[in-house]
Structure formats: structure tokens, C-alpha cells
Amino acid sequence: MNPENESIENQQEWEMRPCGMLVQRRENGDDFDDVNGGPLYKIKVSYGSNFHDFVLPCKSTFGDLKKLLARETGLEPEDQRLFFRGREKDDSETLHMAGLKDHSKLLLMERPASKERKMEEESKKNEILKACQAIAQVKTEVDKLFQKVSSLQTSVNTGTRVNEKEFIILTELLMVQLLKLDSIEAEGEAKALRKSEVRRVQGYVDLLDSLKTKNANPFGDHGSTVAVTTNWETFDSGVGSLTPPSSSSSSFTKPTQDWERFE
Questions:
Q1: Nearest 10 degrees: CA dihedral of 88, 94, 96, 98?
Q2: Total-model pTM
């Protein structure tokens, strides 16, 4: 063979790629995969009303294709089902062994378990959102009530006498908001919000109780005033006398002497 002809033949059979690798020249426009040593398949995958086109080596597995589909569809590989000619394909099976050719078409479907899980997650998100909205409404009402609590606090601290009914009404209104919070079914973020709001309302109720005591005895010892207030509440219920005890020293001396005589 003429060396010159041999050189021409070699130039036709081999070509230098940009990366510096010498490979066999492509003929008739066929795509060739250098890594796996096989042709590249153009695959069309139908998913719902959409189509996705991929070009990948014929020795690729359906598991490899699912990874590419996950990027395009957002559907995780384990939630995918790939069908070719009406049969679901296994992840480990290769394209060419399954009988695929260039321009073959596949059908992608989502696993039923995945759909159910997504529906449950969506339902849970909606429930949390609904609970957060309900808690926000309660919070708005509590904010309005706190303005009244703050006004009472200013009056009591400056020595202004406040009608006892004001404390009772505000306390009852705050308790209504506590009942609303208790009726809200909450999970996750909503549960934390509800707990925080319950603590806030309880704090305002405690503050009102303290202000009520101070308002009843503005100049007395607050430690002993609590006991006196409790006794008067007992009297109001119909037990005992409505007349407060005398503060004279003689009235306390005589009962003490009588008790000693009984002993």
C-alpha cells in the first residue's frame, strides 16, 4: 500500500478531539460516547402535559435517567416510575438492554405513596397556617386589652382610686382569650406561638390581680393585704360577717383572755 494512501486512510478513521484525545472519527453524523464506548441516545420523557428531552449514553441506567429527571421535575428518583412500552423499568437496567433506541419515548409517573405524602404535608401546612392566623387574631384582641391594663396600672400607681369592677371585667375578657387559645389545635411553629401568647395573657391576669390588691389598700402592707382581701371575698360569698374586725387593741385582748379561761 502506498504510504501516502495509508496516511489519508488513517486521517479518515481517526481525529483529534479538542481535549487532545485521539479517537475514531464519527461517520454519517452518528453520535458517539467516548467514555462508555457506545452511541448517545436522544430520549423523550413524557410527564403530565410536559415533555423532557435528554441525550445520554446507551449504557446509562434508568436510575441515571431518574437523577436527570429529578432536576427537571423536582420529583425525587425514589418517587418516580419510568415506563417503556407499557412496562415499568428497573433502576439498574440499562437503556440499550431494555430495547431503547435513539429517539425512544418514555412515560414518567409519580408513585401513589409520594402523592399521598405530599397531600398530607400540604394539609399539615394549611392547618399550621390556619392556626397561626387564629392566634394572630387573639393576639390583636389581647393587645387592645393590654392598653386598658396599662391605663389601670398608671392610675393605681399614681394613687387614683379605680372601681373594682374594672379589674373584674378586664380579667374576664382576658380569660375569654385564654379559652380561645386553648381551643386552637396547633403544631410546630403554631404551637410555639400559642404557648407564648398563653404566657403573655396569664401575665396580664396576674398583673391585674396585683393592681386590684394595691387599689384596695393603697397605703397598706401588700403582704398582709392579700390575706385580708381573701377574707373579704369569703364574706361576700355569704359566709361570716360583713362587718370588718375592729382595729382597737382592747378588742383583741379580751378574746385572748377568754380563750385562756376556756383552756
A1: -30
A2: 0.49
Compute the distance between CA of residue 220 and CA of residue 7 in angstroms, rounded to an integer.
Answer: 117
Return the number of other C-beta atoms located less than 10 Å from residue 201's C-beta: 22
Whole-number Å distance between alpha carbons of 249 and 257: 13
Measured distance CA(108)–CA(54) in Å, rounded = 13
* Bridge partners for 106 per DSSP: 45
Share of the chain above pLDDT 90, in %: 56
Smallest CA-to-CA distance from 215 within 146, 154, 148, 144 is with 154
C-alpha span between 211 and 62 (Å, rounded): 73
Q: How many CB atoms lie within 10 A of CB 208?
A: 22
Specify the DSSP element, H or E, that contains 43. Answer: strand 38-47
Residue-level pLDDT at 165: 93
User: What residues of the chain score a pLDDT lower than 50?
Assistant: 3-4, 6-12, 14-30, 32, 34, 36-37, 223-263
* Chain segment 76-116, per-residue pLDDT in tens: 999 999 999 999 999 999 999 999 999 999 999 999 888 88
User: What single letter denotes the amino acid at residue 116?
Assistant: E
If you ran DSSP here, which 8-state letter would residue 78 be given? G
Asked if residue 62 lies in contact with residue 98, where contact means CB atoms within 8 angstroms, the answer is yes
Return the C-alpha cell found at 185.
389545635
Specify the DSSP class assigned to residue 58. Answer: T
